[in-house]
Amino acid sequence: MFDANLSGGDEIIRRLGGLYFDSEKIQKFSRLVGAEMVNQTEERFYNQHDLQRQPWLPSLRAIEQKGKTLRDTGRLMGSLTYVPLPDGVKWGTNVVYAKAMHYGLPYRNVTPRPYMGMNENDRASVLNIINRIMDVDL
Questions:
Q1: Cα–Cα dist 40/82, whole Å
Q2: Minimal CA–CA distance to 80: which of 110, 109, 58, 101?
Q3: For 88, left (φ over 0), alpha (ψ -120 to 50), or beta?
Q4: CA distances from residue 38 to 11, 20, 66, 107, 116 in whole angstroms, order as listed
Q5: Alpha-carbon distance 137 to 122, whole Å?
Q6: Distance between CA atoms of 93 and 82, rounded to whole angstroms?
Q7: Is 122 helix (H, G, I), strand (E, B) or coil?
Q8: What pTM value is reported for the model?
Q9: Radius of gyration (Cα) for the chain, nearest Å?
Q10: pLDDT for 1-51, tens place per residue?
Q11: How many CA atoms lie within 13 A of 111 on its CB side?
């Protein structure tokens, strides 16, 4: 599986500490953040940009067919999922070519098109989820 783990710097880790001793809250955190990170990753496919919102270089197939890059069959984007963990969450895909599309394959002229990971907006969303969970009784 090609995946990303929750990592967002000291602020997320510090705020997560408040959830670790409440299994219901950490489970809710894992579900909400997993769904949010899959949604954010899908948004990159819809809008054709990387984590820093820089446009992907269009693929030759997308140019020739007047389609979208990494959206030929929709398999890669449609395979995105998340896995709640006891202490966090990871999200990703089991599609064999996912890593090659993310990092590229220079020897096959496949341009990198990063889509997996977290940016500042994602970190802010995670902090917002943590704050909501900590401020609301389950």
A1: 12
A2: 101
A3: left
A4: 21, 23, 26, 30, 9
A5: 24
A6: 8
A7: helix
A8: 0.86
A9: 17
A10: 777 766 545 677 667 776 666 778 888 888 999 999 999 999 999 999 999
A11: 11
CA geometry: angle 33, 35, 36, nearest 5 deg: 60
Q: What Cα–Cα distance (Å) separates residue 83 from each residue in 87, 88, 92, 114?
A: 11, 9, 9, 21
Q: Which tokens hold the place of 84?
A: 């709640």
In sequence order, what are the residues at sequence separation of 6 or more whose Cβ sits closer than 8 angstroms to the Cβ of residue 58?
A: 48, 69
φ and ψ of 77, to 5 deg: -65, -40
Beta pairing partners, 90: 5, 83
